[in-house]
Amino acid sequence: MVVPSLKLQDLIEEIRGAKTQAQEREVIQKECAHIRASFRDGDPLHRHRQLAKLLYVHMLGYPAHFGQMECLKLIASPRFTDKRVGYLGAMLLLDERQDAHLLITNSIKNDLSQGIQAVQGLALCTLSTVGSAEMCWDLATEVEKLLLQPGSYVRKKAVLTAVHMIRKVPELSNIFLPPCAQLLHERHHGILLGTITLITELCERSPAALKHFRKVVPQLVQILRTLVMTGYSTEHSISGVSDPFLQVQILRLLRILGRNHEESSETMNDLLAQVATNTDTSRNAGNAVLFETVLTIMDTRSAAGLRVLAVNILGRFLLNNDKNIRYVALTSLLRMVQSDHSAVQRHRPTVVECLREPDKAGQRAHLALVNSSNVRAMTQELQSFLESCPPDLRADCASGILLAAERFAPTKRWHIDTILRVLTTAGTHVRDDAVANLTQLIGGAQELHAYSVRRLYSALAEDISQQPLVQVAAWCIGEYGDLLLEGSCEETEPLQVKEEEVLALLEKVLQSHMSLPATRGYALTALMKLSTRHSDPPCAQGSARSYPSSHRLLMKSPGSTQRDTPIFHLLRAAILEKMPLVERGGTQDEEAKESKEAQLSEAALVSTEPPVRRPEAPRGRGLGRASTPTCYLPHTLSCFSLHTPASVPNLRVFEREGLQLNLSFVRPPETPALLLITVTAVNTSGADVTHFVCQAAVPKSCQLQLQAPSGDTVPAQGGLPVTQLLRIFNPNKAPLRLKLRLTYHHLGQSVQEIFEVNNLPAETWQ
């Protein structure tokens, strides 16, 4: 017995009554079979009913593509009931990716030419929903004619269709310029709102349209003044604000027309002042209008008094209980800091209170207010917040303090004190380059060596859990420990330190379970450096010999087969002398020389030299990074016999929106089959690149080992680059190819790039 087809209402009830997913699928499969059979039979009277049921099935997520051609048949039907369902089906089942949507172009053109407003409305709705560029070119003339039809129903839909056409085909701007000037005189709310939107789209996409519509700025000003002062239509008022949607749209258009145009900006100055002072802020609708007013004042050449008024409005927004309003106020203040810094400074206490917000807008706004005149006070506020802020905010806050101190530090001593306080408070949350920057700073301030080593020794004696602080302290004690033992420093309180106390403290660091391998390397290097400068080093030697079983610390003399050869034959070698002062920058020849020296010294002990920021010549492993469990001491003896490897030219393999990826190559002479590639990521844009991950692949004939990167954040404005070492073993000397995949977040977007590097220099594999 054949089950009859269900009506739409019965189908809905039966689907809703299904208790399981399987029952629902069974009902839908049976009904779809009836719908297919009806389409094959070509029943014209019930086709629209069958398609209506199919559209409901499509809305539930089930396939309904077999109804596309039935939509075309219903659209071509002369009956309005068929057209209504046919156009609805076309909007739901068709899109630009399918060629079938082009088949309805003639039907839409015929329906637009009819005088029936209901049919014209259906055709316009469909065109504005699924209209492709080809359809827009073919039907632009018909839509332009409907813009001036007497009926407001059709004109409103025609304006919205014109907006869609301009977005699809900006070249159609000239067709819609003349009607827009007439439509601005409309009193109908929907038509006027659509016209303002259409003019906005035209001005954003066509310089000629922008120049043309600057003539209507006085008319737009008058429309907005009428809305503000007398009210345009009470039926469109929201919470006492007259037609806020229309006000917002007009303000956006005025912002575009007044940008970089003095005359237009002067015309709207008085109006913007009226809107800013007469809008009720007790409701969200009024806040929306005020916010658009502030944006218009900021983007146009408005008077200085108006800009101060805009900043004061944002200051009131900061006091609002709504977090969304506070957020938009903070982001807007960030844009005004450069042009109206003094006006924004008045709201600094309010911005400080916003530091405790979970989003980062308050921190960015606070940091943007820092300058050379207030850096001490602002940094102190940030440090006070850092001591009590939640753990998830400490990393961003610490990074902000370090950046502000580096940019606006009044003195070197203040800069050193600021970094020390950050390391003491949130050492585990600082950026990867904090240790390198501080050692660089201390090394360059010769007059503060005694002060720095005493401060660091005192901080280390109190707490050895903050690993970056321990690393800097150990480095400083190793370099300037003799100044610590002398006890002569006019800038600090008298502190008498004995050599045994220093060695005991370094021994405590070595034995602490909290010490990372890199930290132990710093401490052991400091012990050996101290031993070379004093006549009696047995205590230091005993500390080092407490690690005889560690493969990181064992040494082997050339040609020796014994594993117990002591390392202390080299304690008085030149390699353990004080590191020379390294200046940032310099000529290319000096950088090349320093790069060669760095390769030798880094192959030996943990380098106590502060790394130099040099994107073109990456320094391999950075100081203080826990992700480098590489041997610190096994290569000490070999550094005396190393030959400088042949230079291979660097290669830039990627560049996008300020992010650059460079490759530098080293082939150790003693292992010709081994290639060391240092991947260096440099960011010259104005925003940090976060969550940076670089992955690589090589041909099957090669073996690849990826070392841990120096970090996952590439700082903006050419900050310290992120480096990663690739070890490629190519025993067959086959031509080398490299496939890289980069994933990162930049400018609010998640980016993934996959590319192949086929132009590696021949020196890398031959």
TrEMBL record:
GO cellular component: AP-1 adaptor complex
Domain of life, per lineage: Eukaryota
Topology with respect to the bilayer: Peripheral membrane protein
GO terms for biological process, alphabetical: intracellular protein transport; vesicle-mediated transport
Region annotation (Disordered) ranges: 583-626
Ranges of residues in domain GAE: 646-761
Stretches that traverse the bilayer: none
SMART domains hit by this protein: Alpha_adaptinC2
Record-linked InterPro entries: Adaptor_Complx_Large_Subunit, AP1_complex_gsu, ARM-like, ARM-type_fold, Clathrin/coatomer_adapt-like_N, Clathrin_a/b/g-adaptin_app_Ig, Clathrin_app_Ig-like_sf, GAE_dom
Record Pfam families: Adaptin_N, Alpha_adaptinC2
Annotated compartments: Cytoplasmic vesicle membrane; Endomembrane system; Golgi apparatus
Record key words, sorted: Cytoplasmic vesicle, Golgi apparatus, Membrane, Protein transport, Transport
Assigned protein family: Belongs to the adaptor complexes large subunit family.
UniProt-recorded name of the protein: AP-1 complex subunit gamma
